[in-house]
């Protein structure tokens, strides 16, 4: 028997915002270790809310989020932050690097904040893998957008998190640069067993994933395995009709 392990599992998750918007409405979905998942859906379908709840940046108003074996819905600050720092990496559309710190210090920052000893050998290997060996002393402002996102990727992986969440990680990049970043995400899944969950609007980006999960009106609206960009586009057209 093959033992499948979800590193993040949402069970009947509901998120009602103050004012009554039901952004998520009973969503149950798991993300398996060593896989790359894209989350897609029309604007307002709940993608960011799902990502934020799964990552412990927001708490559901109903249901459970199990991250690294813990029901994080029962945690409060500062424990929630501690769990997030220990188990989750992030890559954002806007890179979110600290401009006053070097590339090297940016990569090690999450571990320093978490109070764990940074694994410098791993950090060096990551910078090599993303093609930035030798740029450790540069400041983010001296790098291109694609290079900055590659630093953010190394930073997300440096603490060997259980899962990396990406919020439109290629949204601010041109086509070729975005493709290079997606290729790196794919390789980190295939070569080092990373688990990645990425929200995107771009069917071509989603096609790099093993699985695309669709949302519509805060509910799951099916999924595709090993999809082509065309299949993803077709499904999106159906959902927005
Ligand atoms: N802080 C908030 N307070 C109230 N309503 C919110 C809040 N954040 C999001 N919403 C609402 O919840 C619903 C889902 O929003 P969410 O941002 O998760 O969707 P999305 O699929 O990520 O959208 P987009 O593709 O446009 O980024 C929308 O109706 C949105 O207006």
From TrEMBL:
Keywords: ATP-binding, Nucleotide-binding, Transport
InterPro entries listed in its UniProt record: AAA+_ATPase, ABC_transporter-like_ATP-bd, ABC_transporter-like_CS, ABC_transpr_LolD-like, MacB-like_ATP-bd, P-loop_NTPase
Superkingdom of this protein's organism: Bacteria
A Pfam family the protein falls into: ABC_tran
GO CC term, one of those recorded: plasma membrane
Domain ABC transporter: 8-240
Molecular-function GO terms, alphabetical: ATP binding; ATP hydrolysis activity; transmembrane transporter activity
CDD domains per UniProt: ABC_MJ0796_LolCDE_FtsE (cd03255)
Protein name according to UniProt: ABC transporter
Species of provenance: Actinophytocola xinjiangensis
């Amino acid at each position: 028997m093959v033992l499948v392990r979800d590193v993040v599992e949402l069970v009947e998750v509901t998120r009602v915002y103050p004012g009554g918007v039901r952004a998520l409405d009973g969503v149950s979905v798991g993300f398996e270790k060593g896989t790359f998942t894209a989350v897609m859906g029309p604007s307002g379908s709940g993608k960011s809310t799902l990502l934020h709840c799964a990552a412990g940046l927001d708490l559901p108003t109903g249901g459970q989020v199990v991250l690294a074996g813990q029901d994080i819905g029962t945690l409060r600050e500062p424990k929630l932050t501690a769990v997030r720092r220990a188990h989750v990496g992030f890559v954002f559309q806007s890179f979110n690097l600290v401009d006053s710190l070097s590339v090297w210090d940016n990569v090690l920052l999450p571990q320093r904040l978490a109070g764990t000893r940074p694994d410098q050998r791993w950090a060096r290997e990551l910078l090599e893998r993303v093609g930035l060996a030798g740029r450790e002393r540069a400041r983010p402002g001296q790098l291109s957008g694609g290079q900055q996102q590659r630093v953010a990727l190394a930073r997300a992986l440096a603490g060997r998190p259980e899962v990396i969440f990406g919020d439109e990680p290629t949204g601010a990049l041109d086509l070729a640069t975005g493709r290079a970043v997606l290729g790196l995400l794919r390789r980190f899944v295939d070569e080092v067993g990373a688990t990645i969950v990425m929200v995107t609007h771009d069917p071509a980006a989603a096609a790099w994933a093993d699985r695309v999960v669709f949302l519509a009106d805060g509910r799951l609206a099916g999924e595709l395995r090993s999809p082509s960009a065309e299949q993803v586009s077709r499904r999106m057209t159906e959902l927005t009709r």
